[in-house]
Fold this protein.
Amino acid sequence: MARIGLNGDQHTYMKQLHDQYGDVIRTGPNELSFRDPSILSAMLGPSGVPKGPLMVGRIRTTTNLPLPGIMDTAVHHERRKPWSRAFSAAALKEYEPRVSDRANQLVEILERQKGEVSLGVYINYFAYDFMCDMAYGGGSELMRDGDKDGIWDTMGAGSPPATFIGHVPWFGMYAARLPFMSKHGKRMGAHCREFTLRRLQRGSERKDIFHYLSNEDLPDRPPPPEIQLVSDGILAIIAGADTTSSGLTSLFFCLATHQDAYKRLQAEVDQFYPPGDNPCDPKHYRDMHYLTAVINETLRLYPPVPTGTQRQVPHRGQGVMLGSNYVPPGTALYLPPWSLHRDPRNFAPFTEGFWPERWLLAAGRAPASEKSGIYFVHNDAAFLPFSHGPANCVGRPMALQEMRAVACAVVQKFEVRLRAGWDPSAYEEGFKDFFMTRRPALPVTLHPRF
Ligand code: HEM
């Protein structure tokens, strides 16, 4: 699996192994993958299994670990508190103008492009600039200036070896001594440290997540040590920028290849945000059920963390029961979204196809007659793009806010068409799982509607 991970194919390989050998497979000497949503609570719920060593291996250190790498449940719970404050409903309300400004900037920049556009590249820049606004009160202008310093590529450059090491975390400690293994991480670390120090000195006029991570909202508490703030900043950028960008790029790929869905979403956007209205004002998002269906269906087919994160049964202790299986201490575990989402026992019909309507049917928002005569299965417990439980994705509400704003802004303004002659099968073939994903740049042409 480590070798397959190096090529970015672990998500498809795991699914292939599950199809061949069943719902529980052994993917390494001490590693299991479950394709079984019935163990969701036992594995990821409040009394579930702690995080695994994947992150320790990936970042090659056992000290000053970022939130997702903290294997001690009590310590993890404590470290998550400022993150939870940063993504509370009240905090998200304060971030709304920034989402809107950046999404509208994206549309303005797209309007200036002529001919073929690599939509995925602009979406990457949007996601990066926005996360820098959130993590550091600003400082990045990739959309405006382009990526002259190659920072986006630096962020992804270390991913293949990191994916390899994720399966053999002990090797990470040795790899950390090899200069070629750590150069990208060091460059990213130095970049984020500079942004963190600047944010600490300068403060911010508008609230950002740093406001909460540095305890500015709790004046009687001292800020955490600088090293923790730098680590949190890197985490925000890595966890927040690539994932959302991956989801949005896949969304436009799915829409561009399914004109019926595009038209239906466009009609909904036009209804709630006619020309002249700001599509990034979230006042109507709650009522836009087709938009929610499109986003869910995209994240089902192309989850931005395709293999999910890892858990590990603690070495000291008794082992756990997952369903009818006893799992001994020290075993690392996966519940991979790519395999669960593409299992016809969880989602049918059109399991491997883009069909947003399934979400409307499942929520009772479409006439039940539409499912008469078809074999309809919809298992919400098997839908895990943001994982589940107390250690799930804490940034989920922000990711959805961004995805909704950009989807509405782009669909209101343009007809997005795949570049003539570009083979759509290249998208799935080029969709690689390095924990973060790597995907084709999505060549499109944009046709302004007004
Ligand atoms: C579509 C976009 C996103 C997807 C699909 C996604 C998915 C995930 C997944 C699968 C995890 C692992 C959870 C686990 O171990 O159970 C995670 C963790 C995390 N995500 Fe996201 N994420 C997204 C966007 C964001 C954004 C915008 C942020 C903002 C900074 C963010 C911050 C985090 C953090 C801090 C963690 C660690 C949580 C913990 O260990 O307690 N994510 N995410």
Observations:
- The chain has one domain: 1-448.
- The chain is about 50% helix and 10% strand.
- The pocket of protoporphyrin IX containing FE is lined by residues 67-68, 80, 83, 235-236, 239-240, 243-244, 247, 304-305, 308-309, 385-387, 391-395, 398-399 (CB under 6 Å).
- The domain at 1-448 is CATH 1.10.630.10 (Cytochrome p450).
